[in-house]
Amino acid sequence: MSSETRSDRASESAGRTGLTGFVSLLRREVLRFIRRPRNTFVPPFITNVLYFSVFGVILGERIDEIAGVPYILFILPGLVVLGAISNAFENTSFNIFHGRWNRYIEEVLTSPLSYRTMVGAYVLAAAIRGAIVGVLIALIGAFFTSVGAAQPFYLVAFGVVITVLFAGLGVVAGLWADDFDDLTMLNQFILRPLVFFGGVFYSLNELPETVQQVSLLNPMIYMVNGVRYGFLGVSEVDPNASLAVLTGLAVAVVALDVALFRRGYGLTD
Asked: Which of 23, 142, 244, 247 gets the most CB atoms within 10 Å of its CB?
């Protein structure tokens, strides 16, 4: 048998091993949140029923419309973004930190999987959780108002990009954190405030000019408006530029995740 043939067979075998390992790790991470719906799906369900009831119905009767859109429909995209990215971030950050804490992540690290395969499985599982929660919130909104997709391509594209981006950021957080309080702090005191100041409940045009310019430094503005454009066809920023920049950020963050895994950052004592 020639050396070239042996090399081809070795590459094919390695490819099958990588695919099998990827699917196995992905399945484990997905089943982790599917089997615990009380922790993963019930809280955002209850929270968003309250959001739609208080902000959409009660407050919406007073505000009426923003940019020609009923207020309850105007806030829906922002609530979808909040639920999707929070759950994507939480999934990777807590799972990786928990694996470090209880040392079972070593089973993954000692497997024949490449670092890209490991990161890909963690990120994809978290993105799936974020997408499921986003769809769940949209379905909740459908009980309160008429929900459609004016720009389905942008809706799906922004949904994929933002969940992958925050799943990747969750990997960084899971490797960096020294205890669970660090993760809670990131989610509650950094991530959520940025979303709430990202135009979820108000229009940028209602703000003073100076505040508008400062608000544009908040990346959540582009995510919320991108998803709003997908749902309503309305956006206060260029959706194409937003999608391009967010896609670049997502790719850069996932590449950083792979580099951190390769260096063993946070994974070794």
From this structure: 247
